[in-house]
């Protein structure tokens, strides 16, 4: 009986120790969202749980629910200095306005509303890894709440939002309005009980000083003269006017950088490419051990040039439909009205504003980075980013749904394009000697057998 009592007592003690050890992760999680109206930024900062590192977890944006067009329109109207609706060339109402984009310090006058985007200051991916992936977030509806929280939403220019991406401290701080950015970041991290890395908190502490914030990291004694300051301030970048960009063929410089395609008949070439990929199985880094950096592939100027070039070259010449001349908005971005085909969802858009059309990398830059591109030369990465074999026009919302996903997780919405997508995937993987995992290779084998693929 006495031995049994000791066993029960030992079990209760070990359970209590386990609960105490788990406490840092759950300390403030029962009152989300926390009230931020009666607490200083310094106090909020102290109550953010510090960790050495945050695991990079598989992320699905759908887990946060939908961001409605009505919500977007409301935010655009309230953030605008001035906004109005007027009929376009087809008689449909479009919203125009004047907005201020804080992260790149630009005032955009009289631009189409789709030139503006809504930035989650603390990105959804950051929130997911820092706590939102848990079952508690799903069952209590906190993900949907986070998605729509206006305190975390800022209207910015399209180019500024693409440049920022999913980054945050210490990798990203805006050059302008950094204090606003820092305060929002601290408030949202505290409000939703999200974890933060020590490097992240150190960078916020350092960059918060010019903002009048005396930030201290609770529970950690950090040297003020740390030798490893990993904070990176992202400098300003120009939004190029197309007339200032070179018009020569950027792709000529890539001769010899990529692996040559196999010789022989098309069927034999496909078999050779698939066989070659079998030697590259098992060397992927999709777990994210190497930190992806989009800027390693190309500059904002390059991206603007590629987009304009493809929009011009792939515009549909629809009989009886007027093709509108390119126009340069006041913020220096060249856009046109035209007709395009979004290949992977098989939809044609006639006489639409070009800002609803995205340029999709079939094998995304992120996927390529973790499949070998992190070890490439700068020249090879730039050639990959500009390679027309890896680029397709895609409707904006469809491109958001695809994101960085690839085969076999994602295939085109248009059934007739599925085989073409698989062949494109195989070609790019072979051409750039990118690694594949075993599931990906097996799926490629099955798809090649199922589809009687042909070159295009």
Give your account of this protein's structure.
This protein is α+β, with helices and mostly antiparallel strands and 456 residues long. Helices cover 37% and strands 14% of the residues. The chain has helices at 2-26, 41-46, 69-79, 124-132, 135-139, 142-148, 158-164, 178-191, 198-208, 266-277, 300-313, 365-370, 378-386, 396-402, 418-431, 438-450, and strands at 50-51, 82-87, 93-101, 106-112, 116-120, 153-157, 196-197, 327-328, 334-335, 337-342, 347-353, 357-361, 391-395. The strands form 6 sheets. A 3-stranded antiparallel sheet has the order 2-3-4, covered by helices on one side. Helix 10 (266-277) crosses helix 15 (418-431).
């Amino acid at each position: 009986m006495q031995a049994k009592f000791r066993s029960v007592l030992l079990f209760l003690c070990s359970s209590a120790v386990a609960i105490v050890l788990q406490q840092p992760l759950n300390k403030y999680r029962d009152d989300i969202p926390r009230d931020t109206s009666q607490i200083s930024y310094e106090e909020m900062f102290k109550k953010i749980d510090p960790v050495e590192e945050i695991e990079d977890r598989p992320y699905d944006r759908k887990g946060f629910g939908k961001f409605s067009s009505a919500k977007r329109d409301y935010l655009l109207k309230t953030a605008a200095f001035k906004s109005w609706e007027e009929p376009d060339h087809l008689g449909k109402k479009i919203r125009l306005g004047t907005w201020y984009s804080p992260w790149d310090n630009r005032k955009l006058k009289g631009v189409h509303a789709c030139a503006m985007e809504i930035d989650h200051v603390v990105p959804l991916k950051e929130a997911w890894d820092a706590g939102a992936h848990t079952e508690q977030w799903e069952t209590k509806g906190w993900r949907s709440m986070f998605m729509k929280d206006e305190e975390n939403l800022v209207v910015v220019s399209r180019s500024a939002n693409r440049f920022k991406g999913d980054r945050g401290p210490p990798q990203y701080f805006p050059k302008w309005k950094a204090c606003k950015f820092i305060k929002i970041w601290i408030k949202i991290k505290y409000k939703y009980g999200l974890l933060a890395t020590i490097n992240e908190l150190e960078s916020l502490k350092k960059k918060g000083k010019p903002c009048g914030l005396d930030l201290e990291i609770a529970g950690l004694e950090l040297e003020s003269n740390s030798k490893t300051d990993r904070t990176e301030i992202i400098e300003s970048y120009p939004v190029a006017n197309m007339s200032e960009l070179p018009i020569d063929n950027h792709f000529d410089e890539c001769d010899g950088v990529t692996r040559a395609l196999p010789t022989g008949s098309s069927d034999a070439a496909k078999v050779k490419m698939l066989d070659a990929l079998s030697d590259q199985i098992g060397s992927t880094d999709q777990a994210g051990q190497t930190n992806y950096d989009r800027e390693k592939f190309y500059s904002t100027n390059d991206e603007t040039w590629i987009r304009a070039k493809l929009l011009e070259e792939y515009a549909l010449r629809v009989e009886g439909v007027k093709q509108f001349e390119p126009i340069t908005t006041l913020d220096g971005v060249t856009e046109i009205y035209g007709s395009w085909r979004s290949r992977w969802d098989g939809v044609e858009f006639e006489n639409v504003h070009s800002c609803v059309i995205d340029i999709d990398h079939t094998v995304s830059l992120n996927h390529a980075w973790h499949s070998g591109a992190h070890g490439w030369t700068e020249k090879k990465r730039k050639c990959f980013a500009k390679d027309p074999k890896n680029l397709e026009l895609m409707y904006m919302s469809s491109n958001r749904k695809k994101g960085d996903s690839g085969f076999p997780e994602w295939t085109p919405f248009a059934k007739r394009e599925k085989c073409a997508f698989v062949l494109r995937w195989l070609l790019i993987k072979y051409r750039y000697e990118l690694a594949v995992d075993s599931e990906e290779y097996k799926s490629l084998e099955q798809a090649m057998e199922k589809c009687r693929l042909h070159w295009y």
